[in-house]
Design brief:
The structure is a homodimer. Chain A has about 400 residues and is of the alpha/beta class. The first copy, chain A, has helices at about 10-20, 25-30, 60, 80-90, 100-115, 135-140, 155-165, 170-180, 190, 195-210, 225-235, 295-315, 350-355, 380-390; strands at about 1-5, 35-40, 55, 65-70, 95, 120, 145-150, 220, 240-250, 255-265, 275-280, 285-295, 335-340, 340-345, 360, 370-375, 375-380, 395-400. The first copy, chain A, is built from 14 helices and 18 strands. Chain A starts with a strand and ends with a strand.
Chain lengths: ~400, ~400
């Protein structure tokens, strides 16, 4: 079986490398050799180990009947969408790491694949190398999945871990992360939570079988989290993590991305640095968790190649995926009740207590501010009261499990 | 598709329950209804919800062409082996939670299944409801798996967690666990590590593709771990866990079951109570971890039913599994080098330091004994020197990552 790789960037070169370096092992596992025949990129790569496979014309791939699987690792939702659809329409399976495209056009592309007896697989789009799409589609098939909560973005988890361990502030850690290449020069997609939002939307779609539109998901990043907040988190035996949270409530799905103060009894508590983890709650199994490297060249490539192998094993057949184009109804976050953590200036505590009765004051020696954990309160009520309280509220973070 | 369940004990009744309660969901996922037609048990169950399905004659199942999948949840390696083989020979797929049988006859039964165009699946045999067999067989297919380390037994993890949190001693916690039903009246299989041994042998077989004979695996239980050892573990930021450890070294596989002092940076550190977790190291992906309930009626049943669903989806076909009857060469543990923790009586520290130069003394205020962590030393050398040191060595536990 011949494979084409579209996009020779970080993940693309990883895919070619994994297929070449684990070739013997893969052939043994599936009883058939898998080989990359074309690498599509607009650039030239003189001196590259796989220079002879580089092509610039997508039609070479589309017109070659030997090519049964195409890896789309270009990114974006323009040309990538066009090429993916073209390949599927010709009965070539497509494996991708492109979460933006999966979140935006997943159900449509799955339908095109099914109609053409080939597959559209996207294990690498969430959690990098962590097998999480497969558990939802193939392993937890006897389960009604009720809740998915995940640390889905390695960059923000790295930043939060550094802030926690070193007491450093967000801007400084971000700058350092950018210098080291752990964060992009243009970090919005990560730090504002958009990347995590796409991923939780994909997982929520698989949970409900309908389409959770990522553009309608409430999303809050980590830019307002401060080193001071971690002082109070620690005092409570907690940590602050950027979570994608999704809960199937039957008629509607409650889904959001936001920083959350989680307890040290939560298995996500110990997920540090660039690691990702996804906690899945099923009606029979209870909690299970999937942990690993959520990004990086080889981990992500390994997930793409695992999908390639599935396509080879199922050549000429569609691997079904229950994700219909029908939009899932997203619950109104304003109506959700929960506890909140507030960091409050010394002068403001009385007003905060009056606004949110029945909460708990957290003090840390030597500090001028103080912490306050509210009783359960509706999001909209919380927001309105914080508005009234004004400047005395220094930070606000949702409390998690 | 009709299913037969052999053995109506805890897991068996869970399987029947999961299939009945998630029936609609399962039918939607696979486009076909799955229904239990027979429950085989020697006992009667008057008044049971599924009383009408109880049968006592295995031939009813074997001779019924409607039955395509059989769940073997009887346990043991006698009748269970005989019935499993009989079903496979008639082209009926078998799904099991019986780790003893899988560890002992896995490769043979896989061959019988392949020869008869049906499948032998055993997701529930390791890690209860945690999908771990599937990642190894279907998700991490692009990976060369180099190492597997797991907390594979819920009873011992529960006991160790209680000892750690309450400072209680093994015997007391075991007694309490037995009263609560968390440990069996005859607890040897758990506390002596035999159960974990079978599971790490199964995982090692899947890692190497050969048969790792569980009877040849060095196995040490938790009966010698004391509350005092946890005091020193805590002082070092560590915990004590019963680990199944396996490492593919190409020509041979290094595998053992033993208590290990692991650091709080190890993702297995936070796995408490009855939870299990398996850490898998691949050559591309690095570390990934699978966490969840390793035992219990519904979690284990959920894994069996996930296998049933796979069999239904692959009716008339063998789901391949790379596990040959050829025995893997097991490395001689005596030659392995590692660090050890010793708890030493006050009078013995000088002798211990002299026997194991270059180590580190750990003291805890108010205690008469002391801790010592050796430099790297071969297992056989360590054992010989401990023999010579005699009574001054109060405890010895391997240091882990």
């Amino acid at each position: 079986m011949k494979v084409a790789v579209m996009g020779y960037g970080t993940v693309g070169s990883g895919v070619v490398e994994v297929i070449a370096d684990n070739q013997e092992l893969i052939a043994k596992r599936i009883g058939e050799a898998v080989e990359v025949k074309y690498i599509l990129d607009i650039r030239e790569f003189p001196g590259d180990r796989f220079e002879d496979k580089i092509v610039h014309d997508v039609n070479l791939i589309m017109d070659d009947p030997e090519v049964g699987v195409v890896c789309e690792v270009m990114g974006g939702v323009g040309v990538a969408y066009q090429f993916t659809k073209m390949a599927l329409e010709r009965g070539k399976s497509v494996c991708t790491s492109n979460k933006e495209l999966v979140a935006k056009h997943g159900p449509e592309l799955l339908q095109v694949a099914a109609a053409n007896h080939c597959s559209y697989l996207f294990e690498a789009s969430v959690g990098g190398g962590i097998p999480i799409i497969r558990p939802l589609n193939n392993a937890l098939t006897a389960e009604k999945i009720e809740m998915i909560t995940g640390i889905l973005n390695g960059t923000t988890n790295y930043i939060l871990t550094k802030m926690e361990r070193e007491g450093a502030d967000f801007a400084d850690v971000l700058k350092e992360a950018q210098e080291k290449g752990y964060a992009e020069r243009n970090p919005e997609a990560d730090v504002e939570g958009h990347d995590a939002c796409r991923k939780i939307s994909i997982l929520s779609s698989l949970m409900t079988g309908k389409t959770v539109n990522s553009e309608k998901v409430y999303t809050e990043g980590i830019t307002k989290v401060t080193a001071s907040d971690f002082v109070y988190a620690k005092a409570m035996g907690r940590s602050i993590k950027l979570l994608g949270m999704s809960c199937d409530q039957g008629d509607e799905v409650q889904v959001m991305v936001a920083p959350s103060m989680i307890s040290n009894q939560n298995p996500l508590y110990m997920v540090s640095d660039v690691f990702n983890a996804i906690l899945v709650r099923g009606n029979m199994l209870g909690d299970s968790m999937y942990y690993g490297r959520g990004a990086g060249k080889l981990p992500t490539a390994s997930a793409v190649v695992a999908d390639v192998i599935d396509c080879v094993k199922n050549a000429g057949k569609n691997i079904p995926c229950l994700w219909s184009p029908e939009e899932a109804k997203i619950a109104d976050i304003a109506e959700v009740e929960r506890k909140f953590f507030l960091r409050v200036s010394a002068s403001g505590m009385d007003a905060v207590k009056a606004a949110f009765p029945g909460g708990q004051v957290i003090t840390v020696e030597g500090r001028e501010d103080a912490g306050y954990v509210t009783a359960s309160v509706k999001e909209k009520e919380f927001a309105a009261k914080c508005e009234t309280l004004g400047d005395v509220v220094l930070s606000k973070i949702r409390m998690g499990e």
